[in-house]
Structures are given as C-alpha cells and as structure tokens.
Amino acid sequence: MPAVPKRRTPRGRRDRRRANSYRSPLLPTLVTCQCGELVRPYQVCPHCGAYRGKKVMQVKEE
Asked: pLDDT of 14-27, one tens digit each?
C-alpha cells in the first residue's frame, strides 16, 4: 500500500510550493542597467556595452 498523508495540505502551503516549481519559462528575468535599460542578468547591455558597471564593448550609434 502507498503512503497516505495524515493531514490535508492547506491551500496556502500547496500554492506556495507550486509558485516556485510552475514558474513560466516565457517570462525572462530583467535587471536595470546603468544606462536605464532593462537587460537580462549576466549579459552585456546591447544599448551601452556595459557589464557590471564597466564598459566592455563598443556599441555602434544608429
């Protein structure tokens, strides 16, 4: 026979557990660059060419 829970899991506990494991992969995490643009974390900013506050790449002005 399989294990059977002794008590019913409350909705709050169930939903808090599901909130982390069912996060949508379509919504990327974004952080604000020093130039004010939203960029993905741990990536060079395509707008100003900065990474962690330092200029690491030249960006063509259009």
From this structure: 988 888 777 666 77
